[in-house]
Amino acid sequence: MIIRLRAKMDRQDVPVDGWADASAVFRAWIEKNGHGASNLTRGAGDIIDMGKRVAHVSYNGRVWAINGKEIIP
């Protein structure tokens, strides 16, 4: 499954291969850019599949379904 992780601060979508990869890629992006939780914009960490938001990676790398339940990678 290839999905896209939205990194809103630099306006790019990154292809990721599943939930665990999305978590790792988002945390790496945060670390690389020195972002704190308070300066992430709305939509940063969103996981997009076929143009629709299907999940979200939070600042700490946890993955959440749009219904609010945690997805364990």
Describe the structure.
The chain is α+β, with helices and mostly antiparallel strands and 73 residues long. The protein has one domain (3-71). Helices cover 21% and strands 34% of the residues. The protein has one helix at residues 19-33, and strands at residues 3-7, 12-16, 46-49, 52-57, 63-65, 70-71. The protein has a six-stranded antiparallel sheet, covered by helices on one side. It starts with a strand and ends with a strand. The mean pLDDT is 85.
Computed CA radius of gyration, to the nearest angstrom: 11 Å
Strand proportion? 25-35%
For the secondary structure, the number of strands is 6
The overall average pLDDT, rounded, is: 85
In whole angstroms, how far apart are the ends?
13 Å
Task: Give the overall form.
Answer: globular
Number of discrete domains = 1
Helix content: 10-25%
The biggest beta sheet is recorded as: 6 strands, antiparallel
Task: Pick out the low-confidence regions.
Answer: none
DSSP helical segment count = 1
Structural class: alpha+beta
What is the H/E order?
EEHEEEE
Q: Biggest sheet: strands side by side, in what order?
A: 2-1-3-4-5-6
